[in-house]
Amino acid sequence: MFLRTQRFPSINVPNPFSKDAMFVFFDRIKTNWLPYFKQAANVTGLPLALIVAKAAVESGGNQKTSNTAHVGLMQLGRDTIAACLDYLEGKMYADGKRWAAPAQVVVRANPVIRKFFPAYGKGETIHADAAFALASADSPSGAEFNVLMGAIYLQYLCQNPKFIDSNGTVLRLDKVMSAYNTGPNYHFYKTPVADTSGLVSIIRASQLSAGKKEETSRHILKFCGQGGAFDLLFNRQYSLA
Predict the structure, then answer these.
(1) What is the CATH number of the domain that holds 109?
(2) What is the count of structural domains for the chain?
(3) 23, 49, 194, 204 - which has most CB atoms within 10 Å?
(4) pLDDT digits over 193-236, tens only?
């Protein structure tokens, strides 16, 4: 499913975290949560390294954080989780169109979700509050559901044409990372940029608040920067095996 070539983000700007700190994050995920990430990769068709890298940037591999609005390993908000469930049910609306998850994602996701919500997909939907409560739970079930929802959100973003170049062959993972953190509906995503440094410059010149500009810029560099999660995992400086 991850058919398009992902653009290797520019790594000429350093990751704000040290390599040793990143390895601690990866070790935490590998030791405690890796089966859930492997399951999410199988469901979505995304590379395992991509989902692990995202969690490392989002939570440092900590299931419980001080943030109560965005929770768990993948740091998800209530509305994002609800949107992911709508996506699986073929009734998500974004960018002026209706989105439906690929059939193979739905087929693989449903049995996992039914472990927690047995009536799901059998004429019964999940209330957003119940889904958020589970994703927030400091438990193995909470971690499993949270990772799955985060991976499904990533899969949706990776299918969105606004993050793919004009000939449909290159996925801009730096833009995907920004959208996951800040939201996918900003006009600056349509501005052509050659590399990650250019994207960060556009974000810093955008209408976002000063705090959000800094947060999003650092978030992108934690993933795409030199020594960032993408660099370390996709260039095999750390093994998930």
Answers:
(1) 1.10.530
(2) 1
(3) 49
(4) 878 888 888 899 888 899 888 888 888 888 988 888 988 998 88
